[in-house]
Amino acid sequence: MHQLDTFQGGVLKKYIFVVLFACSPLKKEKGFCSSASGIITASIFNNCVFCLQGYQGLVDGGDNICPATWESVSMMLQLGGTVIGSARCQDFRTREGRMKAACNLVKLGITNLCVIGGDGSLTGANQFRTEWSGLLGDLVKAGKETDTEAKKSSHLNIVGMVGSIDNDFCGTDMTIGTDSALHRIIEVVDAITTTAQSHQRTFILEVMGRHCGYLALVSALSCGADWVFIPEMPPDEDWEDHLCRRLADQRSRGSRLNVIIVAEGAMSRDGKPITSEQIKKLVTDRLGFDTRITVLGHVQRGGTPSAFDRILGSRMGVEAVMALLEATPQTPACVVSLSGNQAVRLPLMECVQVTKDVTTAMAEGRFEDAIKLRGKSFENNWNTYKLLAHINPPDVKSNINVAIVNVGAPCAGMNAAVRSAVRMGLIQGHTMLAVHDGFDGLAHGQIEPITWTSVTGWTGKGGSMLGTKRSLPGKILEEISENIAKFSIHALVIIGGFEAYVGGLELVQAREKYEEMCIPMVVIPATVSNNIPGSDFSIGADTALNTITGVCAFNSRYQNTFSVFFSLQTCDRIKQSAAGTKRRVFIIETMGGYCGYLATMAGLAAGADAAYIYEEKFGIRDLEVNVQHLVNKMKTTVKRGLILRNENSNANYTTDFIFNLYSEEGKGIFDCRKNVLGHMQQGGTPTPFDRNFGTKMGAKSVLWLTEKLRECYRHGRIFANTPDSACVLGMRKRALTFQPLSELKEDTDLEHRIPKTQWWLKIRPIMKILAKYDIKLDTSEHADMEHVIKKSPLGK
């Protein structure tokens, strides 16, 4: 399928299908889950129905299978949990129950089933599909349906999406709901850190994860925990001694708190549970530390979905629809997954089997296999954690000096990258140097050693602890080269935005004149604008996105007094305000320079009616269409509107112009309010995504520099002048890659400070479809069916 027909108001009328949020009968609850998946599927199909209360509703039928209309799914994006409900269903485990479910579907002419749940729920869906022909035959024999009805429903198409906070389903990097759960955990960790530092306490935090340690592991990375217990990798036999030594060592270095993260399914190597109470007793008895336990429990399942989960659910929902449209009777049931930045389709039962293989590996004591089976993302997180938390700097030094500098505007997550880069460098035996105030500091000698303890607690701090400036090195190259020689700098880590990228290019070009510049360099993208060539994501963009979609814009009289409360929620509160006050449209200006990433993704996450950006030209005719669209919308029960505008989207159609235009044209129909979010998008504490992303980027950059230094060491000195010795470290589709700065220049619009190709432009139509515009959706790059792994560590 290369291109679908024009969507009639976003509706494709031909197909009938059901959206089901299922709960495994073997589990008490299925995880926290953004409703975005259901929204997308309900939006694209005209004849779409919801099955309330999961499989139980499918078995009971009647009012439990109800129409899903455009208006009924509006205002759902910001709601947590599942609006359509979920319940345990013993009936569906029996053939008789599945016959009732099949009968209900056939009577309604439903042949497409979208199931959102965990591995148990999806396994049940696959069994239902496998038995479908037999179930129809039994129904015909019993006289409960006719031959004609059976022929019309001769096969059942199934696609699954994984909704689980545990991220315990193999085949996907992230399940819907996991990021939101991490937000809840990190909010608690940040709050506890304050009291722990005040009283010099040790805190033990128990998080969910009976069979999967993802939440515990990523939380530990995101907060710089001293220790983490996960079921996939139990600690060594002498873990009690090791833990006590580590905690005592941290205190001796001046740390005023210790944080230990425990997954609820943590166990020892002999299979015995490791409990929070057991750890508390150990720390109290041996070290005498004041120790407290906090069990987060179901707090992790609640709250508002994060921007990441809203966008993930939306993208997965669209891919699920495409999979159903393209399915044939021979197509195996598939699950829609996330691999890096790509939506992929995987055979459902392959994923289920690998998930079961993890449990088998843990039961048999093959813990390394269990880590590998969890997937590359989990394995990378574990390896990064081990390096940063459990390995002390070596006694033998490498005689290598690595400098770290922040350049450009500050953003959340910068400090996490600096911390991991510093500690990884010290682990390699290098001397790490902190450069204050950007390239100016490098030119003026604002350089000093930075130690392990210097960066303690930096992961959760916003802004730039090193200080940062926007100035470029072009006019101070002489001074920079002198200080590189003076401080014997052998490698350089540049963390920042577009100025960091351009500054790196200028340093590379200066190699022809200044031999001191012939050292390995790496640029780590860190900017809210997400406009660095060579990377699909930048550190800081996720935090800014959550600020826009979730941060409350205070009334102007409170902004100065209560600016510290920027973590309350924006577009959500604005939408609630607009919904409470009928017929109101909000117009919001976002940052990003000429890059429309924030406006587009915030529009998708917040359910905007339009998002104006520089990359997609618009004129007065487009504005007229948008105004008329809102006029028509006000005739429905959804009497609110949300418009986003990137700050540099158009020099003439300014935010004030658009506000005045909408206000004039909407007179008597709706009124308007505007809000310019400004620099609050650069502030706040980093999200779990930015903390984790920054941590992995910082560590990987130093490991790469270490390898480059070995390659460039000749005749007793370091000399690096090849293109691949100065790179941007970026996320490209499914992997972190190093790309030479000189090669990326060709893909750069230097005038407008944006890459010439930007991946997210291809998903802009999704936002328009959800806003009910008549557009065409290009599916020429749809995801083909892939396989989880060709050969697992189990040899299967």
TrEMBL record:
<dbReference type="GO" id="GO:0070095">
    <property type="term" value="F:fructose-6-phosphate binding"/>
</dbReference>
<dbReference type="GO" id="GO:0030388">
    <property type="term" value="P:fructose 1,6-bisphosphate metabolic process"/>
</dbReference>
<keyword id="KW-0324">Glycolysis</keyword>
<feature type="domain" description="Phosphofructokinase">
    <location>
        <begin position="401"/>
        <end position="704"/>
    </location>
</feature>
<dbReference type="GO" id="GO:0005945">
    <property type="term" value="C:6-phosphofructokinase complex"/>
</dbReference>
<keyword id="KW-0067">ATP-binding</keyword>
<dbReference type="GO" id="GO:0048029">
    <property type="term" value="F:monosaccharide binding"/>
</dbReference>
<protein>
    <recommendedName>
        <fullName>6-phosphofructokinase</fullName>
        <ecNumber>2.7.1.11</ecNumber>
    </recommendedName>
</protein>
<dbReference type="InterPro" id="IPR000023">
    <property type="entry name" value="Phosphofructokinase_dom"/>
</dbReference>
<keyword id="KW-0808">Transferase</keyword>
<keyword id="KW-0325">Glycoprotein</keyword>
<dbReference type="GO" id="GO:0005524">
    <property type="term" value="F:ATP binding"/>
</dbReference>
<keyword id="KW-0460">Magnesium</keyword>
<dbReference type="GO" id="GO:0003872">
    <property type="term" value="F:6-phosphofructokinase activity"/>
</dbReference>
<dbReference type="InterPro" id="IPR022953">
    <property type="entry name" value="ATP_PFK"/>
</dbReference>
<keyword id="KW-0379">Hydroxylation</keyword>
<keyword id="KW-0547">Nucleotide-binding</keyword>
<dbReference type="GO" id="GO:0061621">
    <property type="term" value="P:canonical glycolysis"/>
</dbReference>
<dbReference type="GO" id="GO:0046872">
    <property type="term" value="F:metal ion binding"/>
</dbReference>
<dbReference type="GO" id="GO:0016208">
    <property type="term" value="F:AMP binding"/>
</dbReference>
<keyword id="KW-0007">Acetylation</keyword>
<dbReference type="Pfam" id="PF00365">
    <property type="entry name" value="PFK"/>
</dbReference>
<dbReference type="InterPro" id="IPR035966">
    <property type="entry name" value="PKF_sf"/>
</dbReference>
<dbReference type="InterPro" id="IPR009161">
    <property type="entry name" value="6-Pfructokinase_euk"/>
</dbReference>
<keyword id="KW-0963">Cytoplasm</keyword>
<dbReference type="GO" id="GO:0042802">
    <property type="term" value="F:identical protein binding"/>
</dbReference>
<keyword id="KW-0021">Allosteric enzyme</keyword>
<dbReference type="GO" id="GO:0016020">
    <property type="term" value="C:membrane"/>
</dbReference>
<keyword id="KW-0597">Phosphoprotein</keyword>
<keyword id="KW-0479">Metal-binding</keyword>
<dbReference type="GO" id="GO:0006002">
    <property type="term" value="P:fructose 6-phosphate metabolic process"/>
</dbReference>
<feature type="domain" description="Phosphofructokinase">
    <location>
        <begin position="47"/>
        <end position="323"/>
    </location>
</feature>
<keyword id="KW-0418">Kinase</keyword>
<dbReference type="InterPro" id="IPR015912">
    <property type="entry name" value="Phosphofructokinase_CS"/>
</dbReference>
<comment type="pathway">
    <text>Carbohydrate degradation; glycolysis; D-glyceraldehyde 3-phosphate and glycerone phosphate from D-glucose: step 3/4.</text>
</comment>
<comment type="similarity">
    <text>Belongs to the phosphofructokinase type A (PFKA) family. ATP-dependent PFK group I subfamily. Eukaryotic two domain clade "E" sub-subfamily.</text>
</comment>
